[in-house]
Amino acid sequence: NDKKGGHLAVRNADSQLILREAAMCPDEDEDQFQDITKHKFFNTNNLWIRLDKLREYLDSHDGIIPLPMISNKKTVNPKDD
Fold it and tell me: In the beta sheet, which residues pair with residue 42?
């Protein structure tokens, strides 16, 4: 079962704005995860970037953008759940 999409949330620990992907959500929390009264901004997997700003950032950070790893476990056999 391949989960797509996600929403913006504020992390409680440090009030940092984060993107929570559906793949990070346990099955039992899916209803809460998709609650649009709680999470008003969902992503559509589109990315709009100002390339000049991206180049500036990459140039000043040794070509690296430090992003958190998002685990999305999948099986090799598409018939497996």
Answer: 7
Give the pLDDT confidence score for residue 71 in this predicted structure.
75
- What pLDDT sits at residue 49? 87
Q: What is the pTM of this model?
A: 0.47
Phi, psi of 17 (to 5 degrees): -75, 130
Torsion of CA 69, 18, 12, 5, to 10 degrees: -80
Tokens for 73, please give them. Answer: 């476990």
For tokens 């409680």, the residue is 12
In sequence order, the 6+-apart residues with CB closer than 8 A to the CB of 33 are: 7, 20, 22, 25, 39
pLDDT of residue 26: 86
Residue 39 neighbours by CB under 8 Å, 6+ apart: 7, 8, 9, 33
